[in-house]
Amino acid sequence: MSWHSDVRLTFPHKDDIPMSRSSSWSHTCSASSGMSDLASTVARQSSRESSRGSSRGSSRGSSSDASDSNMPDTQKLLEQKYGVDMSVYSQIEDLTHLVGPLTEDSVLRCLQARFYSQHYQNKIGPVVISVNSYQHRPSCQALLGPVKASVLLQGVVKDAVTQHADTGHSQAIIVSGESGSGKTFCAMQLLRQLFDIAGGGSETDTFKHLSATLTVIQSLCSATTVTNPECSRVGMFIENFITDTAIYRAKIHAYLLDRERVCSIQRYEKNYHIFYQMLSGLGTEEKAKLHLTGYSIHNLRYLSSGSTLQNELEDKARFDAWKSALSILGIPFSDVMRVFSAVLLLGNIEFVEGTGLELDLVGNNEIKAVAALLGVSGVALYRGFTTRTRNSRGQVCKSLADVNMANATRDALTKALYFRTVSAILKRANSIRRPTCNSTLSDSIESNLHQDSLGLSGVRDMPLSRNPSLTSSVCSNYSKKTRVDGFISIVDMFGFETAECNRLEQLCINLCAETMQHFYNTHVFRSTMQSLREEGIQADIEVTYFDNEPILELLSSKRSGLLSILDTECAQPRTSADTFVSKAKVHHRINNYFFEPLPKASSVFGIRHFAGRVVYDASNFLTNNRDQLSDDIICILSKQNCNFGFVSHLFARETKSSSSSGPGPKGMKHRILPSSSSGRNGSDEVRGTLSSDFQNKLDSLIRTLVHTKPHFIECIKSNDRCEMDMFDKDVILRQLRSLQVLDTVQLMAGGIPHRMRYKSFNNRYAVFLTHWNPYQTSSQQEHCKAILNSFLKAMDDSKLPYVSTQWTLGKKHIFFSEGTRQQLEAMRVEKFDNAASLIQAVWKGYLQRKLWPERRKTLQTQQGAPKVTYPVQRKRSKTKESGPKKDPRLLQQASSYYKISLEAAPAIPATRSYNVSGNVRLSYPQSRIMKDDFPKVASDDNVLCRGEEVKVIGPASARGHLKVQRRNVCLDVPYHLLDLKTVPAPDGMDI
């Protein structure tokens, strides 16, 4: 294989660069223990001073164009601490351009210098690193707050739009990072920029509808956690469908997962934001209608068990914006409020052991209020909680429920009411302006979720194509051709997180984070290395990365994965969490990524994730994974028993299947939030579990992303305390290692991470060839070589900054470095710009020449000039006439029009009786001062001395002279020898 290296970068010896995650990384950062308190104080104080007078909801924190006026003091402190010129690092936008050895210390210093210069985004070739400074606050209306995005985020959107227009391939911008790293805010900035570039701006109906939908989701699916006060508890896949290079429709696929939070919140955390906002935003009369009079955060059990801190003014403003957004979507506000009020009051209902057979009720007023809000009978609602119907071999029997079962049914109804309402809102929002064909993601009651029969192992085994062929990403039937060009999607999925007590929701969230990290590793590292080995190419630098595939096998393997074991245990009628944990320990006792935490407990286990160790409490794993609701309570909410149409519609599928076999409960179990497979094939009972549904949706999402061109944005939180302008190096370092940023920098700076098939490369960069005949060569490889030769010549003639280039030709692909990619794209854009300028110039010249005769007639008519008829042009004689041609007839007409005599000489203009100095008109006589003696040789009586004041009476007959009067004698004095004494200003003011 032939290699080319125009300017080869110099890299340190491989022993000087930490190439493995298992090796010790601490030696590269021994001098970087964290910024001093003085430097942090100066930085935060400087930021606060620079932000005075600006609104709290501005997006200045993410802008790279912010003012640097307060940075010198901070830079001096940082330079004194580290002995490095921080101004040099702050100018480095791309981490691949770092000078010297590529170590964690150099990457950290660059990020720190740019962070305190208020540049929060950095590049690693095509990958963007975004550091969350916690300066932005969520706007009341989504997409309206982050108006101005950074230059690098704008570049990502422009690249996605350009590549979609050039190739027709669907694009995906994937935003990843830990919980609290600013993924949702970054996604909103990207979405706003995408609509500004390809969606027609913020005044289009599509943008307003999408903004209203995201505003509703922002309140319904966001909550306060220990690490993030604005934590989004939903994963989003936003498809922006493109036709004719313009966005004509957007669709949101939301992944609802954190269901336990509605009825059980942990210490220092809060429930979903909508509950606090409605308590602050509802008026007195509205609360009375909703039976919420006298209730607050402190006496509602679903809210009082967590943090009770609240900003009522802010919550009221956000509630008003949420109410307006709900009206834009055409959803009745009163119906949604009735359901959410019932959810809050259900928490104050509690069943306890009674003296008799039946259970006693704590909260009699609350159950009456809930029954009135849901439109059912209070007695029927009580019976639905305390009665359990079983189906034993076709025989239906009823029994009284115990305390735990009744309270569990109450919580299950609470979660069903809330999440089915959220799903109905999303389905309504996505049903407006449907496209001509179905979406890639199958519609369900959640209106948003992927469904596929393959597991995660099938996705991992599927090769990820760098340049996938054009697929129909909008139609469910891929073989059917449509007029839709594809989509540009923004993926904001769950990030890695830990809580005080990690439940099943945290396990699924971390599974999602592992899957997205595996997709990144496969696309950036694995596929590149595998292609090089397949084509027999030996790279100069071998990057060792951490492959988390064993962790995915541990979690989601169909044979012995933890979630598979959990599903098996959920299918058993009698089992417990201890049994599940014991079986998991038997299967994975020797697994390096599975451990038993100390002190040992029967229902606790731990997993070593790619981002850190997490200990899970499996006490409620079985209940939460079953995700079941008995039909005893569902039958009460049927159309026959419920006069509230909105609620009966939420459970229409289940009540319809139950009524088909007769009235009353049948002892069936239904899902709290059904998936698209529920009730199919005539089945009355639900299939699947919470974890299996989430795995299928996640698998289908990855299958969709495989057929797109991904663009990666890695988000990093600057500290764990959500403090503004605080750069915690330990926190940053932990995330850099988990996201494998240094490995990516080494690959992009010294390797050849990009590859293209010869045909695709030739089609894209054929612009470098001025003359090319495809029949002159016998292969695409020869064509590629000709393009590269022309590219080298164009580099010498280009005015662009010179960068290193490196490439090699393989069997099927051409492999090239990041510097080559940047130079190719930059020069391609330059050639297109030059060609566009030339085409515009030629076209505009032709158009003006074509329109000039008519325009000349219009100008002559406007000026009132007589119409001139030109004589018929005849052939020129061979004898050349000397001098310009004169038309006597035309001269006569012009002289008569302007009253000019052709025989008389032109008159001499009259001499002006004034002169002008500056903007002041001076009349004669005037006083002036002599600059020098005049004349040099003359009698003593007629000599004008230097500095003498003289009187000028007017202009002299001689050119350039003024007439000066002295003792009744007039002298012609040159103008340059006279200086004005004073020049009176207008309105009597002195100059």
Automatic annotation (TrEMBL):
Per the record, where are the segments of Polar residues compositional bias?
34-45
Which Pfam families does the record cross-reference, listed alphabetically?
IQ (PF00612), Myosin_head (PF00063)
Q: Where is the composition biased (Basic and acidic residues)?
A: 879-888
* Single GO biological process annotation from the record: actin filament organization
Indicate the segments annotated as coiled coil, or none if absent. Answer: none
Which residue ranges are recorded for the region named Actin-binding?
698-720
Name of the protein this chain belongs to: Unconventional myosin-XV
Lineage in the entry? Eukaryota, Metazoa, Spiralia, Lophotrochozoa, Mollusca
